[in-house]
Design goal:
This protein is mainly alpha-helical. The protein has helices at about 75-95, 105-120, 135-145, 155-165, 170-175, 175-190, 190-195, 200-220, 225-240, 245-260, 265-280, 290-320, 325-330, 340-355, 370-390, 395-410, 425-450, 460-470, 470-485, 490-510, 520-540, 545-575, 590-605, 620-625, 655-665, 695-705, 720-725, 745-750; strands spanning about 5, 15, 585-590, 615, 635, 645-650, 670-680, 735-745.
Length: about 800
């Protein structure tokens, strides 16, 4: 057998074990000549150890397009049709009736502040609400399509479509079958479908991160500058969208370090990082030096890694390399722009010192030093842009310029941040501070929130959330990790497995766990599933046992895929505001639409428009600040102190203050559910819950799921899971955060607004009058039993 095969189509040299060409995907025959045919230039030989030019190519032709350039056969035309159908389904499932669902608390905040930016140009980055890209992007949607509930979700839907289109670029890396399956899985994913219709930043960051990964792979293969430019744009959009990008950078970055460094260096860096993590466990949370210990060890690991990478880079520059990764890095030409890179790094060091250590900012108070920092920053930016225009290392300088321009414009709101400041020094300081804040402020804020544990979810939260809706990827990604990790090692599935497991671990470690964060580990899980099932589909086992296993795996995949479709349709089109779905988290209920309809009816009847006075207690501000944004006579006080407007909205938790004031003024009220939720419990409705312990878990498992002992009727069982999976019938109680709508007595009578009894909302104020207990008849021998306890009052509902 010859040592290599030459592609008859493009003349690329391939390993002898290949059946298809790594360059163009053409079929290779056993008799392919080893000597190149001289009718066309020979493309560069794929080097060893490449993440995209693996020595073991999948058994189908890798192509970007589902159709070959040289053939338009019927089967390939059907592939065109299949992709066209998937694109149409994506557009429909992402854009159809986007305005029907009430705005979630977070959605309303993002929509409202985007509206302020669109209307007044008023925006400044606040890490609590994440990065500026979503606000500028939503404002653009308002400008193009108008302001409405639907258009506030257009940006998320657009990125949902982009994510699906990006999957179609994976042909050279996953293979034709797996690429189609990846596209199909993303289209049908309940989580992606739901959050692509949701005005939160997770759809944007998922799409932008995917663009970064896809086009980095393309650049490793093509060395075309445009691929690196698009990857840089994807990275910058993701970074300017959400601070969780730091976790994604950690996962993908450590994978690259492992690929680039010797194992000794990997172990040293990993050990230092582990020491930092263990220090957070050992040091009490109330110790002020705790964070600094962690940063010391992690910083030491980072410096060590960078130093070792620098030494290897210098060595590979001098002696050359057969690694595609190192060859690509060396080809970027860092050494030719080293002074610009040093100046840029030095600027950040100087900015951090002067902005974070006040004693060093000796002249910053009058704006002179801030002006110097700003001018230096812009000079460095223009220097990179000038080099790009002069075609000096266009891939590298172009990527840096694209990233810096995008980052700077978004975090300074196109240099308008600080324009309201009274003097020049304050304005310049605002610009410099927002540039710094954009790079590090989000990390600082969310690190401080780590121990807050908002949501209070357990560490295994995503291990429950993934199979609840994404069983197909949860199951097959696990199978693929075992298969490619132990039996058939390949670079691409190992990278996807590392991305999946690393993201799952880091997001499970992070203090705040929310349903929308599931997209981060889910994306590589879907790609890994597609890669594995593509392998199974394209395999041609000759033994009967192998054929049976292949058939069984494909049948399981088909059944689980139908469950994904079932879940996606229920979640996005029938239960999009119903908390019986695990991904519907503290959602504004249908009652909020009724409140808005009542306000519109009364306001138009009295003023002919939206001019009636409204008082909305701060606890009820969201989503009403958004849905009632056109009511200019609207106030949001922290507490109700007077009956000052015809319509007043209050939270029931404030009843002790607001109820006496408004009821005394004759206002009529109705109770509504402002936000609703379901927190799945280990216990059924009517039974007291308790924390899950190892002993309780084992007792429950071996009674209700592996029935060795009699079942526990107080805890969830197979029947409860079946009813939820098929019909979304929940086994524990729903919760709600409640409010009241108060209407002035004359308007209430005029428009028929009356109090209504709500059996589904607990009566907690005014407290029900205890029923007098009749004195018991005592006999002389029971004289000691002279009193009885009064009925216990019902506890107030707990806010989750």
């Amino acid at each position: 057998m010859s040592e290599s095969k030459i592609c008859p189509k493009c003349n690329a040299k391939n390993p002898a074990s290949n059946n298809f060409c790594e360059q163009c995907g053409a079929k290779l025959t056993a008799g392919s000549p080893e000597k190149p045919i001289a009718k066309a230039p020979i493309p560069p030989k794929p080097v060893k150890n490449s993440m995209v030019a693996e020595t073991e190519v999948k058994a189908n032709p890798p192509a970007v397009s589902p159709i070959s350039n040289s053939s338009f056969s019927l089967s390939f035309n059907w592939m065109y049709v299949a992709y066209a159908v998937l694109i149409l389904l994506t557009v429909f499932t992402r854009f159809d009736h986007l305005g029907a669902k009430p705005h979630h608390h977070d959605e309303s905040m993002h929509s409202f502040y985007s509206y302020q930016l669109y209307k007044d140009g008023d925006y400044e980055y606040n890490p609590m609400m994440h990065g500026p890209f979503q606000f500028h992007g939503n404002a653009l949607m308002y400008y193009l399509f108008g302001v409405s509930d639907a258009t506030s979700r257009y940006l998320a839907a657009t990125f949902g479509v982009i994510t699906v289109l990006l999957a179609m670029f994976l042909g050279p890396f996953l293979g034709r079958t797996a690429t189609f399956l990846a596209t199909l899985l993303i289209v049908a994913s309940p989580s992606f479908m739901y959050f692509d219709r949701f005005c939160r930043e997770d759809a944007y960051i998922a799409g932008a991160t995917f663009a970064m990964v896809v086009f980095l792979f393309r650049y490793l293969r093509s060395k075309e500058p445009v691929d690196l430019w698009i990857a840089a744009l994807g990275f910058t959009i993701a970074f300017c969208t959400k601070e969780s990008m730091f976790l994604t950078i950690a996962v993908i970055g450590t994978y690259l370090f492992i690929r680039l460094l010797p194992w000794f260096d990997v172990i040293v860096a990993g050990g230092l990082t582990a020491a930092g993590i263990l220090s957070q466990v050992a040091i009490p949370k109330d110790q002020s030096y705790r964070l600094y210990v962690f940063l010391f060890f992690v910083g030491l690991a980072f410096v060590y890694t960078v130093y070792q990478l620098y030494k290897l880079w210098k060595l590979n520059l001098k002696n050359g390399t057969d690694s595609n990764l190192w060859s690509t890095i060396c080809g970027l030409g860092f050494q030719k722009i080293q002074w610009e890179i040093i100046a840029f790094t030095g600027w950040w060091v100087l900015a951090i010192l002067t902005l974070k250590i006040p004693a060093l900012d000796v002249v910053g108070s009058n704006g002179v030093f801030d002006a110097f920092l700003f001018i230096a920053y812009m000079a460095i930016l223009f220097r990179f842009a000038w080099l790009w225009l002069k075609n000096v290392l266009p891939a590298m300088t172009g990527s840096i310029t694209i990233s810096l321009v995008t980052f700077t414009l978004l975090f300074t709101t196109f240099f308008t941040v600080g324009s309201a400041q009274p003097d020049f020094g304050s304005r310049i300081h605002s610009l410099v501070y927002d540039i710094y804040n954009g790079a590090f402020g989000g990390l600082e804020y969310w690190w401080q929130q780590h121990d807050v544990h908002r949501g209070d979810e357990p560490f295994y939260y995503y291990l429950l959330l993934l199979p609840a809706n994404e069983m197909v990827s949860f199951f097959f990604a696990g199978v693929a990790i075992v298969y490619y990790g132990l039996f058939k090692r390949r670079n691409m599935p190992l990278f996807l497995a590392y991305w999946y497991v690393g993201s799952l671990a880091l997001f499970s470690w992070a203090g705040e766990k929310m349903p929308w964060l599931i997209l981060h580990p889910l994306l590589p899980a879907l790609l890994l599933t597609a890669y594995y099932i593509g392998d199974v589909w394209d395999s041609q086992p000759t033994q009967q046992l192998g054929r049976a296993a292949r058939t069984a795996l494909l049948l399981i995949f088909g059944v689980l895929l139908t469950y994904s479709v079932h879940s996606a349709v229920l979640l996005s089109f029938y239960h999009e505001e119903n908390p019986v779905e695990c991904l519907v988290y503290v959602q504004s209920g249908d009652d909020t639409n009724e409140v808005v309809n009542w306000i519109d009816k009364i306001s138009y009847g009295e003023t002919g428009g939206k001019d009636i006075g409204l008082t909305i207690e701060d606890k009820c501000s969201w989503p009403f600040a958004w849905s009632l944004r056109d009511y200019n006579k609207r106030g949001h006080p922290p507490a109700i102190t007077a009956a000052d407007n015809p319509i007043i909205l209050t939270a029931t938790e404030s009843d002790a203050v607001s109820y006496p004031i408004l009821s005394k003024a004759g206002y009529v009220n109705r109770k509504y559910k402002l936000r609703v939720w379901w927190v799945p419990s280990w216990f059924k409705s009517g039974y007291p819950s308790s924390d899950m312990t190892p002993d309780l878990f084992i007792d429950w498992l071996f009674r209700n799921f592996i029935p060795i002992e009699p079942a526990r009727t107080d805890m969830v069982d197979w029947n409860d899971l079946k009813n939820w999976i098929l019909y979304r019938e929940v086994w524990s109680d729903l919760g709600s955060y409640n409010m009241r709508m108060w209407v002035a007595p004359d308007l209430a009578q005029k428009y028929g607004f009356t109090e209504t009894a709500r059996t589904d909302i607990q009566t907690d104020y005014p407290l029900p009058t205890p029923v007098p207990t009749p004195e018991p008849v005592h006999h002389h021998h029971h004289a000691a039993l002279s009193t009885m306890s009064a009925p216990a009052t019902v506890a107030s509902p707990t806010k989750h």
